[in-house]
Amino acid sequence: MEVERKLADLGLTVTEPNPSIGNFVPAVRTGSLLYVSGNLPRLPDGSMAHTGKLGREVSVEEGYAAARQSAVNCLSAAKSIIGDLDKIQRVVKLLVMVNSDPDFDQQPAVGNGASDLLVELFGESGRHARSAVGMAALPRGAPVEVEMIFEVAD
User: Using one digit for the tens of pLDDT, what is the confidence trace for 107-138?
Assistant: First the structure.
C-alpha cells in the first residue's frame, strides 16, 4: 500500500469511485491495460472542488487543484477494479479536458495538477503521454475532467 501511504502523506485519500452519471463503468481492464473513465474534481463529500470556466470564474491555480482532485478520483476508480494501487506498473496516458473560456490557452498548466501528482506517487513510472485540451463545457459545470490509462500487474 505504498501509493496509498504517499497519498495519505499528501493529505489525500482514495474513496469509493464517484457514481457514474451515464451508462458506463468507472474503469475497464483488458489484459494489462486499465482504462479509467473521465473523472470530475468531486470531493469525498460529493461536492465539486470548483465549478466554472478557466479564464473566467476559475483561476489556473484552482484548475490545477481541480485536476489533482480529478486524478485522485481516477485512482479511486482504478483501485475499485485492481484492488491495490501498487499493481500500477506505469501511467500510460492522460486526457485532461479543461472547461475553457475561448481565449484561455493555459490548459497544459492546469493539466499539470494531475501529471505532477502521478509523478509524485509513481516516480519515473508516473511519467506519461498526455493531451490537455479546451472544451466548451463539461458535466455539472466542472472546470476539469481527467481520464487515464494504466499498465497494471496481474
Answer: 999 999 999 999 999 999 999 999 999 999 99
* pTM of full prediction above 0.90: yes
Residues 6+ apart with CB under 8 A from 111: 67, 94, 96, 98, 130, 132
Whose CA is closest to 94, among 132, 64, 139, 41?
132
Burial class (CB in 10 A: 0-12, 13-18, 19+), 97: buried
> In this structure, which CATH number among 3.30.1330.40, 3.30.450.30, 3.30.70.270, 3.65.10.10 belongs to the domain 2-10+28-145?
3.30.1330.40
